[in-house]
Amino acid sequence: MQASQRPQSSGGVHKLYHQPTAKVEQYYSPYNVVNNNSNDTSSSGTQHSYQTQNEQFFTLDSLPDAGYVIYDSPPALSVSSNWSPFSPQCTQSYISDQHHSSDNTNGSPLSGCSVVNDGNELKHVLREMENNLLGPDSDIDEDSSCSFNDEVSKPSKWNRLLEIAPSLDMKELLVACAEAVSDGDFSVAEALMNVLEQKVSVSGEPMQRLSAYMLEGLRARLFSSGSIIYKKLKCNEPTSSELISYMQVLYHICPYYKFAYTSANVVIDEAMRNENRIHIIDFQIAQGSQWMFLMHNLARRPGGPPFVHITGVDDSQSAHARGGGLHLVGERLSKFAESCGVPFEFHAAGISGCEVQLENIHIRHGEALAVNFPYVLHHMPDESVTTVNHRDRLLRLVKSLSPKIVTLVEQESNTNTSAFLPRFRETMDYYTAMFESIDAARPRDDKQRISAEEHCVARDVVNIIACEGADRVERHELFGKWSMRLMMAGFTQCPLSPSVGEAITGVLKDFSPNYRLAESKGALYLGWKNRALATSSAWR
């Protein structure tokens, strides 16, 4: 939607969010971590061309309803395609390729340029690999050359692959290893893993670091120990003070937290402009820092601040990071509200989102309700995991409360119901972009960066690759799928005012120019180069 067609802001709202205040920053602690293909020789903070002939990126798909907006984050962006905010120059062969995955039939913005969910992509990669192995004059027919699964030719293919494995790049090795794991071919998979072991490094290039964790996930899956390893990773967490320091590292070197905080705060502030009593339900309250920024702004409201009632829903990682229960968050927010002169009350709902029922959230007559979902709904199991379908149940519950505004921020990735091999490829593409973005901000031998990746990102990667069923808790969906869920629950999407994009643009000025911001279908997309990583939208 064009900026001119959206409601105009009252002016100046965004300035209060992208200009840090010492009063708020001293209280900071982030919430749960969020988590392009690029060449293995990724940059370390240097600028790359957005469009290259040899790189393919996960981009946005469907034509926006009324165009799209690219915000002026530095440097100025130029987009040549009129159907994708982050689209590189795509060939017609990619554009005409229709995706038939069940995850991409609901308006989800997965570009025709993407190779992530094309059912033939893995076969294409393997066919190219086979040509290298057997030569173009191989007597194996085309059908058998599409996959290493062919029972007749597979032994010779694997043998030849193992011969040249040391010369393959990281991505080729990972794809081949994933195929062997999928086939249950222990000997080939272990041989490829041994080669990978010699190439990965937690202090190397982005692809080397990501490969280290993806290798761990593949090994766990091969030996059917994914859930065991994942639980051990959770049990072997660092101390509270260490974990919170790692989360703070990510907060300061990447804009993902600030993208969620800032976009939701501006939306809620505008929706509640004329309300005197506000109730905010935060389904991932974490340390509560987001609401300090909002209260700091509400305190400046002409005529005095409104009464603010916050209900915080907890999660085990945040409880561990802060070293105690939600009462610590309540005390912290109450102290801050008092310092700002904001009438305040905090209610603790020390349960996971899956367990939330009406009686847990203390709805009161006369309070305008805002509900915040920051990177949390993808943890709710849906119909593919349990017949209870907590993901849609929770949305229906929230809709029954008649909220004035609902804010949703989610990772733009497709890992919920995808089969293992497409999910593996998607994970590799998505987290390559994330590791590149982290790489741009800290030296590769930085110990804090290494610890932050290990304890705040690697666990998610292992979970996506190694686990299935209820044990797989990282179940991301694309914005198109989230839109369908919300509409089926009875919600209507709210257009975002220009102030939201302006506020995020201000945030991005402190980060690498490779971060990109675009608006499509009423949502804001945050991307690294041409890969969309997160979306923010508003509903009622």
TrEMBL record:
<dbReference type="GO" id="GO:0005634">
    <property type="term" value="C:nucleus"/>
</dbReference>
<feature type="region of interest" description="Disordered">
    <location>
        <begin position="94"/>
        <end position="113"/>
    </location>
</feature>
<dbReference type="GO" id="GO:0003700">
    <property type="term" value="F:DNA-binding transcription factor activity"/>
</dbReference>
<feature type="region of interest" description="Leucine repeat I (LRI)">
    <location>
        <begin position="168"/>
        <end position="228"/>
    </location>
</feature>
<comment type="similarity">
    <text>Belongs to the GRAS family.</text>
</comment>
<feature type="region of interest" description="SAW">
    <location>
        <begin position="466"/>
        <end position="540"/>
    </location>
</feature>
<dbReference type="GO" id="GO:0006355">
    <property type="term" value="P:regulation of DNA-templated transcription"/>
</dbReference>
<dbReference type="InterPro" id="IPR005202">
    <property type="entry name" value="TF_GRAS"/>
</dbReference>
<dbReference type="Pfam" id="PF03514">
    <property type="entry name" value="GRAS"/>
</dbReference>
<keyword id="KW-0804">Transcription</keyword>
<protein>
    <submittedName>
        <fullName>Scarecrow-like protein 5</fullName>
    </submittedName>
</protein>
<keyword id="KW-0805">Transcription regulation</keyword>
<feature type="region of interest" description="VHIID">
    <location>
        <begin position="247"/>
        <end position="312"/>
    </location>
</feature>
<feature type="region of interest" description="Leucine repeat II (LRII)">
    <location>
        <begin position="328"/>
        <end position="360"/>
    </location>
</feature>
<dbReference type="GO" id="GO:0043565">
    <property type="term" value="F:sequence-specific DNA binding"/>
</dbReference>
<feature type="short sequence motif" description="VHIID">
    <location>
        <begin position="278"/>
        <end position="282"/>
    </location>
</feature>
